[in-house]
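I trust your eye. Have a critical look at both lines of this record:
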Amino acid sequence: MKSEYAVDGSKPVELTKDVLSDFPKVELHRHLEGTFALPALHRMALRNKLAVPTDFGEFKRVVQFPRDSDPDFLTFLSKFRNDWYASLGDVEEIAYESIRSFGDDGIFYIEVRFSPEHFAEQNRFDREEVTRLIVGAGNTAASETGIQVRYLITFNRSKQAEEGMIQLYRTILKLDLPEIVGIDLAGDEINYPPKLFTRFFQAVHDDGAFGTTIHAGEVTPAWQVWEAVNTLHADRIGHGTSATDDPDLQAVLRDRNIALEQCITSNRQTGSWSDEARHPFGGLYRNGVPVTLNSDDPTIQDSDLTDDYLKAVQYFDLDATDLARINRTALATAFVSEQERRFLEDRYSRRLQSFAQAHRLKIDN
């Protein structure tokens, strides 16, 4: 376990999970569809008479990926369901309860992404109304907990044709919800490469209303990250683990300050990078590539963001100063205005100072 000497030079302070759970975190890559407040989801499933276990412990076992099992991509995917919601009220409820739970993980600022299609498809709900409800419920939860929350809209490569993406994007744009700050492209990287969505992302780029993040290089070679950057105008890359194989790409990411949103636990469970101890995160960080640490789908994974922090400390010999730098990278690449970024950076510094004082740690600027 990583230890650091206390500010007063006394007994070393171990960066245990309890300590790290209190560390103020900035997260840029978390899917609402994989982040549920499980008690609320269980109540909803029973209320809607879904075929789920009545025992909560058994329900958890059915809903979540087996925490310590071998990687299994198909099992992982099987845990994502969209039949939970019998009404728009259900969508609103699960968004509220889930975002309220973020405070338990030490979240300071988060950009949570969601697909209106996921929540609307089963019962043909109106995508515009789904979007309004999720943002409204999330904002209420955020105001009650003091978490800073912004939203990204996810478009799925294999489930939405480009023309449909453009139509939904135009609808989202007209909603004029300032808390929506970005567009995310997710789904099957292998069969739906970035070049299939150039018209959509050119429109997003030309409008200039949202930041863009592209899932790329998670299960595909580094060339797909190149394509996401050069063809889709990506401001950030989801995962991007294959960047470890391409020094030239790393140089471009550094020069353009394009952050990689990396997820250690998720990559192991899906098998995209099964050896956590040799995950590219540590090497990319040491090489000066802007990397951020994220949870991806923590409820599905039976994990939390703090688990990934603990792994980063254990596997890559990071200390509290390293973690602070990683979080400042996340703030520097968050999809916010420069004025809001300065405000967040100032608040984050004060929050970090409070953490350091509470745990008797020295954290360098």
